[in-house]
Amino acid sequence: MSVDQQPRILVVDDDERARRTLNDILIADHYSVLTCADGATALKLVRENDLDTVLLDLVLPDINGIEVLRQIKKEKPRLPVIIISGYGTIRDAVSAAKAGAYDFLEKSGFDKNRLLLLVRRAIDQEKMAKEIALLKTEIFKKYHMVGVSPPMRKVFEFIENVGPQKANVIITGESGVGKELVARALHFRSPRKDKPFIKINCAAIPKELIESELFGYEKGAFTDAKTQKKGKLELADTGTLFLDEIGDMSLSAQAKLLHFIQDGVFERLGGTKTHKVDVRIVAATNKNLEEEIREYRFREDLFYRLNVVGIYIPPLRSRREDIPVLADYFLEILCEEHGTPKKTLTEDAMEFLKNQYWKGNCRELNNLIERAVIMVKQTKITAEDLIKMQELSQPIITSEPVSLRQARADFEREYMLNILAQHNWNLTEVAQVLKIDRAHLYRKLKRLKIEVR
């Protein structure tokens, strides 16, 4: 292991002999060591270095060791600090623990093996804490929302105000505007942020299966119920349940969901035992639920139970000042994800983006940028490049002679794949666009050998 790779430890002790002893023990065990004799220097070294652990004497000539510990934990909360002292008392140990010390080690009866064991454990804890923090940062970065327009500033304000609350939320807006991102942002801004975020897409699951997905089932509840299965509600306990496309939920499932929201309890399919869970519900839809209520397709009482607070996410075409910000953001993230050199958009490319209609909203913009990241080899992406990327998503027409039946089948399959992509594989939307029912759509997809995602 090179010196740069060795864990770095700071030893703070005004006793030169003790400092040298600790230094020698740690170096012999392949640690990189910094040493100092007072609190002020210790704090300076903590600020200037990436440390893995601190060994801190309780009694220092300038600043009390407990005070140094408090300052370290204030500036670097995850940095483990092991208190060492030749005059340790139970009171000192308690004070150190309260101030955030990892452990307390007495100089009297000094045990080298115990010291090294504590240091190893402290470093492992620090490493794990760093990995968790990095993971959380990456998750936040992935679901981060960007925008400078007044409508998006209202959305951010809504997230800040409503996120910490327990109230149920309904998010409305067209497909692709980022309703799921808002739902995740609400979760991450809530006290439940470290608990489960469970999503169920009500449009992607056949109506006859939605109840078993939501509430779970007992063994033998129906023909294929070979084992017991927990539903999404149980999996989301103490966290957030995101009901995407709530407008496509069957009326029978709506009734059971209403019962759960009112009483906080439910039963698995085929079961009699009552289950109680603590779940916050965030729902989303691209439908006009008030219109659905008038058409008797959505329960009014459920609507009011869910719509404690609601937010509408405006389409991208009504907030064009967000397009450059989103485009640059997508470009940065997608270059990282695909491992390609950093790319930029030229002025004419940005003007091209700002002048598009964006029927698919942010999702369509993201898809176009992703195609450019993959296909454009140079570091600057032009308007001409983007036009070519759009053409790539159009149906491909071959010049090779084929039978009329094969040509019709090829066109129909390509056309279907494009429609599915435009609507993010939302089968309810696709069926509406094609003016066919869902059962007919399923049969057509099977015939065209298109697997449903």
From TrEMBL:
GO terms for molecular function: ATP binding; sequence-specific DNA binding. GO terms for biological process: phosphorelay signal transduction system; regulation of DNA-templated transcription. PROSITE patterns: RESPONSE_REGULATORY, SIGMA54_INTERACT_1, SIGMA54_INTERACT_2, SIGMA54_INTERACT_4. Keywords: ATP-binding, Nucleotide-binding, Phosphoprotein, Transcription, Transcription regulation. It comes from the Bacteria. This is Sigma-54-dependent Fis family transcriptional regulator. Residues 145-374 form the Sigma-54 factor interaction domain. It holds the Pfam family Response_reg. Residues 8-122 form the Response regulatory domain. The modification 4-aspartylphosphate is found at residue 57.
